[in-house]
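P.,

For your records, the input lines for the assembly:
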Amino acid sequence: MIDIALYIALGAVGLAQLLAMARLVIGPHVGDRILALDTMVINAIGLIILMGILWGTQIYFESAMIIAMLGFVSTVALARFVLRGDIIE
Amino acid sequence: MLIDALIAALLLSGAFFTLVGSIGLLKLNSPMSRLHGPTKASTLGVGSLLMASMVRAFAHDDGSLHEVLVMAFLFVTAPISGNFIAKVHLHKLRGKPDLAVLPQGDSWASTSRE
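C-alpha cells returned:
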C-alpha cells in the first residue's frame, strides 16, 4: 500500500514541479519568477523526502535541510536585489 | 496495517496539497493572488510528507524527530519570503514611485517615508 501511495505522490509532486516551472518560464513579472523558484525549492524538498522514504534511508534528511536553508536565503537575496538594487546595504 | 494506512494517507494528502499549490500558482490570474497558492505546498504539503517520513521511521527501525527541524524551518521562513515577494510586487508592479535612495545613515529603509 505504501508503495502505490509513494509512486502516486512522486508523480503528483513531479507534476507540481513541472507546473511551477511553467510559471517560471511564462511568468510576466519578476516577482512571479521569484515565487516560482521558491515553489520549486519547496517541491524539491518534498521530492527528496519522498525518495528517502522510497529507498528507506535517513541520509536524505540533511540534503532536505540544506536545500530549505539555501532556498530561503536565495529567495530573500533575489527579492532584495530586485527591490533595492543591492543585497546588503 | 493501520500504520501503513496512516503513512499512505499522509503521503497522498501531502502530494495533493503540493499539486494544488502549483496548480494555484499556474492558474490564478493576478500576481498578488498567485502569492497565496504555494503557501499550501509549503505548509500542508511538505508538512504531511515529513509526517509520513517520521511515522515510517518510527514504525520500522529507528524513530527520530529530526524531520521536525525542516518543518519548523519552513514554517518560520515562509512568511518572511512571502513578505519579501509581496514587497517586490507592491513596489515594482503597482508602481509606488517612492523607492528610497540607499540609506546613508543608520536607518534600514524600504520606503522613503522615514
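Two observations worth noting. Chain B is about 70% helix and 0% strand. The radius of gyration of chain B is 20 Å.

Regards
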